[in-house]
Amino acid sequence: MALEITDATFQETVLNSDKPVVVDFWAAWCGPCRMVGPVIDELSADYEGKAVVGKMDVDANQEFAAKYGVRNIPTVLVFHKGELVSRQVGVAPKATYAEAIDKLL
Asked: Which one, out of 12, 29, 45, 73, has a CA that is 20 to 30 A from the CA of 22?
């Protein structure tokens, strides 16, 4: 199961991580987000110990969604050493997200 990331935990969990971090910006009412959700959960299991994989509900947490220009959801951002290195807007196959992580490992 993917880690629940909030505005309060974003700095520590994402920006201060020494591992690659994948953040799925989503909302409960978003149909395509429900398609990406299980993929993000699979990635969380696949990369356990190697990367941080989490979800951020944009309805409850708007600060970092705004900071990184998330205007459409689902948007999956990949961070490495506190820097945004990849952005995927919309639904993509699992391999797309895995490839972004693999490049950083």
From this structure: 29
| 21 Rama class: left (phi>0) / alpha (psi -120 to 50) / beta | beta
Active site residues: 30, 33
Contact 77, 86 (CB under 8 A): yes
89 CB contacts (<8 Å, ≥6 apart)?
Answer: 72, 74, 75
Q: Is residue 26 part of a domain?
A: yes
| Mean pLDDT of the 75-80 span | 98
Angstrom distances, CA of residue 2 to CA of 50, 69, 74: 13, 22, 15
Count of other CB atoms within 10 angstroms of residue 48: 10
Which pTM value belongs to this model? 0.96
33 in any annotated domain: yes
Is 104 domain-assigned?
no
The enclosing domain of 27 has a CATH number of: 3.40.30.10
